[in-house]
Amino acid sequence: MKLLLKQKIFSWFDSFDVYGEDGNVAYKVKGQLSWGKKLKIYTPQGDEVGEVNQKIIAITPSFDIYERGQKIGSINKKLFKLFGSAYNMESLGWTATGNFTEWDYEIKDSHGNRVAKIGKKLFNLTDTYALDIADPKNALYALMFVIAVDAEKASRKDD
């Protein structure tokens, strides 16, 4: 399954449209006013299906993730990585490693199987990410990962 996440140009808070392979909107992501980044994920019909909340007090950048209002885990950036960056999604048993530019990531499950491959599209007016997800049932979780990484990178720019 392939998704394309495109940040909206004019928005007070982070806001994205997520397109499916058919070119139609599969999800909408809207930033909320809060301490730290808080992004909610909606279906095209407006039903909330997920949420990514930045933890304010944490040793490394961390985000709590929710599915339909229930906390399902956290995404945590690993403290030390020589080149690139790495994240854990402990509740799912996933790890993600990124290249030195922090634009391309690969998510693997606890058995080393590829869950998703994510790449940032260059030469766009806004942040645009392509997601190639092995199993469609993992689409929302892979999307939450991309949103958290983008929010973490944006937080570094704001400092």
Helix content: 10-25%
The parts where pLDDT drops under 50 for at least 5 residues are none
| Beta strands, count | 12
Which value, in Å, is the CA radius of gyration? 14 Å
Which CATH class? Mainly Beta
Tally of domains: 1
- The CATH topology comes to Porin
CATH-level-4 superfamily name = LURP1-related
Shape: globular
Strands side by side in the biggest sheet: 1-2-3-4-5-6-7-8-9-10-11-12
Order of helices and strands: EEEEEEEEEEEEH
Summarize the structure.
The protein has 159 residues and is mostly beta strands. The protein has one helix at residues 139-158, and strands at 2-7, 15-19, 25-31, 38-42, 48-54, 62-67, 70-77, 85-89, 94-98, 104-108, 114-120, 128-133.
List its salient traits:
13% helix, mainly beta, 1 helix, Porin, 12-stranded antiparallel β-barrel, 159 residues
Describe the overall structure.
With 159 residues, this protein is mostly beta strands. It has a single domain, classed as LURP1-related (Porin). 13% of the residues lie in helices and 45% in strands. It has one helix at residues 139-158, and strands at residues 2-7, 15-19, 25-31, 38-42, 48-54, 62-67, 70-77, 85-89, 94-98, 104-108, 114-120, 128-133. Strands 1-2-3-4-5-6-7-8-9-10-11-12 form a twelve-stranded antiparallel barrel. The longest helix is centred in the last third of the chain and has 20 residues, at 139-158. The chain starts with a strand and ends with a helix.
